[in-house]
Amino acid sequence: MNRIIFVAFIVACCMVNAMVHDKNISGVWHGTLKITPQVKFKIVFNFKTGEDGNPSVTLDSPDQGAYGIAGEVNFISADSVNVTVRRIGLTFAGRKQDGKLIGKCTQGAMSTDLELFPGIVELKRPQTPKPPYPYTIKSCISITYQIVLLSLGHLLYLKVLMRQLRLS
User: Which residues neighbour 124 within 8 Å (Cβ) at sequence distance 6 or greater?
Assistant: First the structure.
């Protein structure tokens, strides 16, 4: 009998731990907000739990250069969340399914589906160009006769433009 009570206690503790873990959606959640087929914005929700135990959220929109917009967590449960960002009039209500938050994002009269995935997305933006370059480099010297100036430099020609000039 004691074994059955002990096993039931362990199972209950595991279930409570799973429910608390699901409720805690702290961290970064990112997704793409599709306004029209041509207009898409990356959107990032940063969920945190404060020292007082209350959840808080900030919103980032990297494509628009907006970071740290304060929001409010209206509701949070084991499988759903409701967030409002009053500064921009945005509301997100979603449910946790298969490790992602799936729901509706509403701003003014516009409402669209939004899927949020956990984790930070690293943007791949190489800062050093690698050959083959989309342009041609030629060294040149220009001399003006009114004021004798000698300019040394490089002319950059776009390869596409050069091809168009050759065709015409």
Answer: none
